[in-house]
Design a protein that fits this description.
299 residues, Phosphorylase Kinase, domain 1, globular, single chain, 3-stranded antiparallel β-sheet, 35% helix, 18% strand, Transferase(Phosphotransferase), domain 1
């Protein structure tokens, strides 16, 4: 069966899905590709996500795509991508979403790291704290209705050019309390941001998302995570066998701007055992607010 990265989407250009027309490809992920689209009735640009049925050869993959659409459709929050319509034809499953004029957080971080002035290679701290707060606000809404993202990473956080707002995207492997996939024992997610329980293919709850946000916070504040240069399989095995060894240094040793209070927030959010982490997004947000307040008072 062909892989998504090698699939020829040329035949999709110009294709119509009801009221929507495919214009050009924007990018690819694990589950299909995203295209710039045009809605004829409202005369507006949209994002259209396609999953070729040729790539979704088993029922689980097809059901996963349908579940993603149903999952996002019940979420209504300013920090979560809005989905307008979903459906399928003989060749593709499709989802029509709000088109974000901006970039993802991974792209922003990579661009900053290329800045010729070392002190300009980090996102300003006030922006870091605002973005993390917005991500946690969006997640809090999702968790309240029983939705867990399970693949949070910088590439899945979109940043609008106009207002700088964080928008959570790609609930591609989202787990709702109402859905249990047949292959429950599969390891899903991106290894660096994967919680130890997820790496072990154990049951997960909302605290697996808090772990991922903690890793993202660490990365934003330090500029680079203190981790080994190893492949994805080795990272997963490390998180299964010795999750405490994932980070090579404590946060405070990675950058002088990471205060003891911020270090405590990061370490609690990324604790190896779920019960050692924050209870929920609200507790995480409150702890981060307190840490930033202490930092402001000390400076």
């Amino acid at each position: 069966m062909p892989q998504n990265r090698d699939f020829n989407y040329r035949s999709a250009i110009g294709r119509e899905f009801g009221n929507f027309v495919i214009v050009r490809e924007i990018g690819r992920g694990a589950m299909g590709a995203v295209f710039l689209g045009y809605q004829k009735t409202l005369k507006r640009q949209v994002a259209i996500k396609l999953l070729p049925k040729a790539l979704a050869g088993n029922q689980m993959a097809q059901q996963q795509f349908r579940d993603e659409a149903e999952t996002i459709a019940i979420l209504d929050h300013p920090n979560i991508i809005t989905i307008f319509e979903t459906g399928e034809d003989e060749d593709y499953f499709f989802q029509v979403m709000h088109l974000v004029d901006g970039q993802d957080l991974a792209q922003l971080m990579a661009r900053l790291q290329r800045h010729p002035v070392p002190t300009r290679r980090l996102l300003p701290r006030k922006h870091v704290f605002r973005l993390i707060d917005e991500i946690l606000a969006g997640l809090a809404h999702a968790h309240e209705v029983g939705v867990i993202h399970q693949d949070l990473k910088p590439a899945n956080i979109l940043i609008g050019n106009r207002d700088g707002r964080a928008l959570i995207a790609d609930f591609g492997i989202a787990k709702t309390m109402q859905i249990e996939y047949a292959a429950k024992g599969m390891v899903v997610g991106t290894p660096i941001y994967l919680s130890p329980e997820q790496a072990s293919a154990r049951d997960t709850d909302h605290r697996t998302d808090l772990y991922a946000v903690g890793v993202i916070l660490f990365e934003l504040l330090a500029g680079k995570l203190p981790i080994r240069d190893e492949d994805a399989r080795q990272t997963v095995l490390r998180k299964v066998r010795d999750p405490g060894s994932f980070f090579l240094e404590r946060p405070g040793a990675c950058h002088p701007g990471i205060t003891p209070a911020l270090e405590r927030v990061i370490l609690k959010a990324t604790a190896t055992r779920p019960q050692q982490r924050y209870r929920d997004c609200d507790e995480f947000r409150a702890a981060l607010d307190q840490a930033t307040l202490e930092q402001a008072m000390a400076s």
